[in-house]
Amino acid sequence: MFSRLFTIAVVAGSITSSWAAASSCTRTYTVKAGDYCDKISDAQKVPTFQLAAVNSPAINSGCTNLMPGQELCLGTPGEDCTDTYTVIADDTCEAIAAARGFNTTILHLNNPQLTEQCDNLYIGEAATPAPSSSAPAPSSSAPAAPASSSAPAPAATNAPAGGDDDDDDDLPFCDELEQ
């Protein structure tokens, strides 16, 4: 499953150079023997998608090339989600969202690797929930809201015309959506 996340991270135009410069990382982790991506994500409270995105192409699509002593970037300034939820057996997007008190629109915006049907959620994945109860207007870089949801989707808000936060091309990381 990590390979799907990795592919989505690369295709989505995620951060490509921040992994190389530890000075641009808000947090780093040194790989130990026996580590794998989901284990690191869970222990370090970094979403699996974020780990793949900020370390592409240093981590391959199967996450099989981790080496003890290798330094990984866990997040970058302005794009470092630290609130994670590790998926367990029988979890669904609706159940995760409902348990956290928000709707699946928020869950999908915070986890752009998830399909609308949420059929690629897997046990051990560190997903990014959000404590917020409202979602911003969908952007071209975020997936559309699912057709059915456990709670009604919030009304869309209008973004100010001509606004630019200097990272419009980046993925919608959790800290940009929790407003």
From TrEMBL:
Per the record, which residues fall in region Disordered? 128-179
Organism per entry:
Panaeolus cyanescens
Residue ranges occupied by any LysM domain in the UniProt entry: 27-74, 83-129
Q: In which residue ranges is the amino acid composition biased (Low complexity)?
A: 128-161
Per UniProt, the ranges with Acidic residues bias are 163-179
Question: Which CDD domains is this protein grouped with?
Answer: LysM
Q: List the Pfam families hit by this protein, alphabetically.
A: LysM
For this UniProt entry, which residues form the secretion signal? 1-20
Is Mitochondrion found in the keyword set? no
**The protein, known as:** LysM domain-containing protein
Q: At the top level of its lineage, which domain of life is listed? A: Eukaryota
UniProt keywords (A-Z) are: Chitin-binding, Signal, Virulence
**Which Gene Ontology MF annotations are present?**
chitin binding
